[in-house]
Specification:
5-stranded mixed β-sheet, WH-like_DNA-bd_sf (chains A, B), ATPase_NBD (chains A, B), homodimer, transferase (chains A, B), kinase activity (chains A, B), alpha/beta, 394 residues, DNA-binding, DNA binding (chains A, B)
DNA sequence: CTCTTTTTCTTGCGTCAAGAAAGAAAACTT
DNA sequence: AAGTTTTCTTTCTTGACGCAAGAAAAAGAG
């Protein structure tokens, strides 16, 4: 038998093109040669893969005027931001908020639509209406709208475009992609809302340089999206990431899910509020609690700080468990609750370091995402970009 | 631009061959057509990939005598057990135990070598000696010894063949593959011991039909190996699976790692023994505790059962957390402690069901592996088979 | 000002994977 | 004996990609 050649790259076709696009996206303007090096390809392969990307207008060659030393000048490639736009959207219980972005996920316009109730009917027609409004705000330079990405909390079957179940929205087997596709005429991509954040962080944020990280959202609930070995991890049936209901304390308070001592019951907004109430400083909202902790009377501040500290400790223990199990390189804290990071952060870090088992788990970096109002919707837009470039190259 | 075809299969070359071998291995005697269907290939591709596998003697065509209805008779393919043999080995603190298996991982011979201490020097020379003894026991029909698989507890860098750190053996950056390769002249594959179990279960055991499962070993410590999306998950630096040190109870007992309330401190052997001692029925070993729980006096049995129940509850809570996070389809309980399943099982199941969040997590099946003495070593042998067929096809 | 050097990109060729389609083998049915 | 049915094989084509040689374009040397 003749010794067969080994194929160094494990990429094939479409996938290679998607990789090229992603690399151009994340590694800024980049030359063909550099691309080849990064992807473990020979330069000619890069050249060969490019025409479709350039013809579609996904990528563009820079005008290249800077002096580059001797040799043939590099033609830098970068994402062509003007040609295509994308709509991203998050369906929440009280409103639908969305953005229009270009192909580099820069936000071009934003808008939102409050909804009276969150029945599928109301929410989806609001989403369709919002899409129209957003597109009318977008620059007309755009040649073509690539699609609509939607983030929904709960259990989403993204292949089918269906929300199987959402506790927050009280949805049960709701077809999201179908109606929206019908109403807007756009390709629709649906996924879990936290997963949209994972994609956004992976492509444009803190996840660019690591291959396994978690995005943990802190707020009324605790959400978690995972990127393992470089790809989104959804579990066997798309339900992975229920960090909020990891049991942490057999003697803990009751959780909304009916069990005792879930992380969410120890570190969610309600836990903080309960703690404050017990201390005699009841607050109506978590925002109020944060204000109290930052600028209340001394007595109130102590109670509030203790409440956040306790939440931070619980969160740190939960994250430590996850790190021990998954050996993550980074944890990105996001969600509304991240603004209170100054209050719960120290306790979190301490608990995490105390319970992180091995050196590697201790090396797991924590990153707090600056509060970005559009982050969710932007993530949803990323879904479309990913799907488009990963699949639609004709 | 012409519409490009989509490549349905994501397999390429070597990988396809490895898939074919694995499918033949796990799906018994199977025809080319069936193989093609399973792997999403067209029959001709299967035919094309086979010659190297057949020539190497990894696979063989059955003599096919059974009547098969009309049509050209299928030529069933099966693993050729006789041609190659493999050595698998587990290095433990008190002995090295190993097996010789055929290519279907059937155990042909077993042996073990006690070691006085577990310094790398002692352990590795014992392993080399044991390899020699095992091979002399093996049938000489074997054409060729494919390699030596070694399972070591702790943090293993399998690519380098090095044990980075093992608490159990008190090893630090010990080169395992090098010396053994030198001493035995065989290709050596090293991995974490629990990971060898994962591979074994995936190929020959309870993991055959699921794509994401965990193997959890119960004993002095709690170990865990993960198979996610069909492939072994080792985390960013090979440290994933530290289930034993997931924090579960802030008020729990101290763990050997110095933290409080780790799963291992709540459900490991020592937890059971401590509970018994507190109840006034001190035992020297876990075996004694099991005997006590099964056939002691009523008072002793109550205490012992309570101890196991508590451990089972803690384990159930830990597993529930893992399920919630990873949406596993199955959890396989193994290790020495699995024999006590009748004692802690009910509590485990109850706690798991109580804390498993979503329907999918609740659907996660628990399987208790019947105590198999060679399971670890057999798993190590599987490593070699996997690596060989996955990589060495020339 | 021309020639060389250097770096980058492109073109042509060979190989391998894998689908498509048609043909060959081997059994059963009529 | 001829047809039917299922399985396996052969041949052809497309596409990905490495390899190697060549073309492009700029800086530096003589």
């Amino acid at each position: 038998m003749s010794p067969s050649k080994i194929r160094f790259s494990e990429l094939v076709g479409e996938q290679t093109r998607a990789e090229i696009f992603a690399t151009v996206l994340t590694a800024g303007p980049i030359s063909r040669t550099q691309l080849a090096q990064r992807l473990g390809l020979v330069p000619s392969s890069v050249t060969r893969m490019l025409p479709p990307l350039l013809e579609h207008g996904y990528l563009r060659e820079a005008d290249a005027t800077a002096p580059q030393g001797r040799g043939r000048p590099q033609k830098m490639l970068h994402v062509n931001p003007d040609k295509h736009i994308v709509v991203g959207m998050k369906i929440g219980p009280a409103q639908v908020s969305g953005v229009v972005t270009d192909m580099a996920a820069n936000v071009l316009a934003r808008d939102e639509e409050p909804i009276a109730d969150c029945t599928p009917r109301t929410a989806l027609s609001a989403a369709a209406a919002l899409t129209g409004r957003l597109l009318s705000k977008a620059p007309e330079a755009a040649d073509r709208v690539l699609g609509l990405g939607v983030g929904v909390s709960g259990h989403v079957d993204s292949a089918a475009g269906v929300c199987r179940y959402s506790a927050l929205l009280d949805w049960n087997k709701v077809d999201v992609a179908g109606p929206l596709q019908e109403a807007t005429g756009l390709p629709v991509v649906v996924n879990n809302d936290v997963n949209t954040l994972v994609v956004a962080e992976r492509w444009f944020g803190e996840g660019r340089d690591v291959d396994s990280f978690a995005v943990v959202t802190v707020g009324p609930g605790i959400g978690c999206g995972l990127l393992l070995n470089g790809s989104l991890f959804s579990g066997a049936t798309g339900l992975a990431g229920e960090l909020g209901h990891v049991p942490l304390d057999p003697a803990g308070p009751m959780c909304s899910c009916g069990r005792r001592g879930c992380l969410e019951a120890l570190a969610g907004d309600r836990a903080v509020l309960r703690h404050l109430q017990d201390g005699g400083f009841a607050c109506a909202s978590i925002g109020e609690a944060i204000t109290l902790a930052r600028s209340g009377t001394d007595a109130a501040r102590n109670v509030a700080l203790a409440a956040f500290t306790e939440a931070g400790t619980a969160l740190g223990r939960g994250l430590a468990g996850m790190c021990n199990l998954l050996n993550l390189q980074k944890i990105i804290l996001a969600g509304e609750g991240a603004v209170a990071h100054d209050l719960f952060g120290p306790a979190l870090t301490q608990a995490l370091e105390a319970h992180a088992f091995s050196t590697a788990a201790r090396d797991c970096r924590i990153h707090v995402d600056p509060v970005q109002h559009d982050l969710w919707a932007r993530g949803a837009a990323c879904l479309v970009i990913r799907d488009t470039v990963g699949a639609t190259l004709s």
